[in-house]
Amino acid sequence: MKDAFGIPQSLLVLGGTSEIALATARRLVARRTRTVWLAGRPSPALDGAAEQLRGLGAEVRTVAFDALDPESHEAVLGKVFAEGDVDLVLLAFGILGDQAHDEREPLNAVRVAQTNYTGAVSAGLVSARALQAQGHGSLVVLSSVAGERARRANFIYGSSKAGLDAFAQGLGDALHGTGVHVMVVRPGFVRSRMTAGMDEAPLATTPEAVATAIELGLRRRSETVWVPGALRVVMSALRHLPRAVFRRLPV
């Protein structure tokens, strides 16, 4: 069970090699979290992440999980919840894709959408049902400011995150009053492996800063978290710009 300050004893990470997720896991383990499940495709990176968290004192187990195989989600995640209560599920998987290439190769664009949206809908609903059955817990969904308004430079990725964000908000409303808390996290440009080599956007942040914001959001039982917080104002302004003006911006 979570303590009075919202720090979970147990954590399930969907997307076990995500830099944001692992920064969050390290931060929570340093506070109170003792049991961590890392769900992802079996790989040396997943095993290495587990060893890193074990070195911090957590009991860590890995589970084979594929966002692109929604038919397996109920069985895979069901086994995790059968081991005991899970206080926090962190839905952190996702791919950026290559906009220019994916526009020419529609199947690649579909893979971005299936990973970021379809896979998340499946895993999110399975996790939400399990959390509701145990009567408590939080589901944290990593969205993105890219979902606030489609940009020419990344509208495939942005549209998938827009769908995920809307889904997570609706799920939070559906679960209100059940004891299950849903929190949507909207980071801006995050310096990570995913964005390596890309031109850095204004108000760029780090996995560690996102992890700090997630912990604070859990303590406050926030429903939406922007990272950094100033992006809330920036994106509100961009969202309401006339389309003809928005189209001319270097975004």
UniProtKB/TrEMBL annotation:
Keywords, comma-separated and alphabetical: Oxidoreductase
Family matches, as Gene3D superfamilies: NAD(P)-binding Rossmann-like Domain (3.40.50.720)
Domain of life according to the entry: Bacteria
PROSITE patterns linked to this entry: ADH_SHORT (PS00061)
InterPro entries linked: NAD(P)-bd_dom_sf, Sc_DH/Rdtase_CS, SDR_fam
Family designation: Belongs to the short-chain dehydrogenases/reductases (SDR) family.
PANTHER family: 5-KETO-D-GLUCONATE 5-REDUCTASE, DECAPRENYLPHOSPHORYL-2-KETO-BETA-D-ERYTHRO-PENTOSE REDUCTASE
Record-given protein name: Short-chain dehydrogenase
Organism expressing this protein natively: Streptomyces ambofaciens
